[in-house]
Amino acid sequence: MVARSALVFAAGAVALWSTNALVGKSLLASHPVSQVQFLQFSGAALVFAVIWLMNREDAPQRNGAPGATAAAWMGLAPIGVGIIGLVGTMVLQYLAFASMPVIEANLVAYTWPLMVAAAVIVLENPRRPALLGLAAVLGFVGVALVISGGRDQSWLQGDLVGYLAAFGSALCMAFYSVMVGRVAASPDRLLLPSSLFGVALTFLWSARHGVAWPSGTDLALGLYLGAGPMGLGYYFWSRALKLEGSGKVAVVAYLTPIASTLLLTLSGERMTMTAIAGAVLVIGSCVAVGMERSEAENHV
């Protein structure tokens, strides 16, 4: 029952994350990153606040003594994990979206499962470390092909900052996925303070731009990015990892670059054959890593 619940939560996160790049691309075409991010963090903070209020009554049962609840709120480690995992991942990802072709940025940002695989090799005792290592290496070769052949068969067609930001986003999400199951705080207590920090940061950032704020459809899409991919997406993923770690759940997560790339392609984004080959390596490596880790957990 626990395994099934974890898979349902993970599938919900993947479904929401898959729409992130497509919706983000449409907003970034007419609005600066700072404004899109402010709306996104605002929507996410609202979702996390509602979840926290709904769970407040049974917090003592979930977290133990009142002292444990206070520690979950005030501990620096959980707050740091949340800020790096939520704020770091999303801000860097959207800087990448604004600085390079979105379809390339999305693929590079979703190499975080390969980074998690590398962490597993270092921190744990996987059954087949050589296979995990080979899959991770092939995945990063795929990233190099995506970057080198994204549009005109030459390196770094986007801003160098964009490629670094996408890679940094992947590092932040890998760190979050490894650490979220190791901290005592529940997902709502981990993510609400982080989202509020993001609201404050992006408000100060967006205040520097003297342009009209989004309204109508753009406002709704911006809030959706916060309430959906960021808010419920992160909450579902955190719940899944809390329930079952990174076994079968990991396999579901690796569907995200497949679905999001498909949606971007249907929207008109195009890649060269070199970049497509790289995308196949990235996605294939992610799936191979996920299946290996799932098999290892089943064996245990």
Please tell me about this protein's structure:
By secondary structure, this protein is mainly alpha-helical. It has one domain (2-299). It is 80% helix and 0% strand. The protein has helices at 2-17, 20-28, 33-55, 59-63, 66-74, 76-99, 102-109, 112-123, 129-148, 160-179, 187-206, 216-244, 248-253, 256-266, 273-299. α3 packs antiparallel against α11, α6 runs antiparallel to α7 (102-109) and α9 runs antiparallel to α15 (273-299). The longest helix has 29 residues, at 216-244. Residues 61-74 and 152-156 have low confidence and may be disordered.
User: What's the number of helices?
Assistant: 15
Average pLDDT number? 79
User: Which outline best applies?
Assistant: globular
Helical content stands at over 70%
Strand content: under 5%
Number of domains: 1
Structural class label: mainly alpha
Radius of gyration over alpha carbons? 19 Å
How many individual β-strands?
Answer: 0
Keywords: Cell membrane, Membrane, Transmembrane, Transmembrane helix
Main location: membrane
Membrane topology: Multi-pass membrane protein
Organism: Mesorhizobium qingshengii
Short description:
The chain has one domain (2-299).
Observed structural traits:
15 helices, 300 residues, mainly alpha, 80% helix
List the topology elements.
Layout: H1 2-17, H2 20-28, H3 33-55, H4 59-63, H5 66-74, H6 76-99, H7 102-109, H8 112-123, H9 129-148, H10 160-179, H11 187-206, H12 216-244, H13 248-253, H14 256-266, H15 273-299
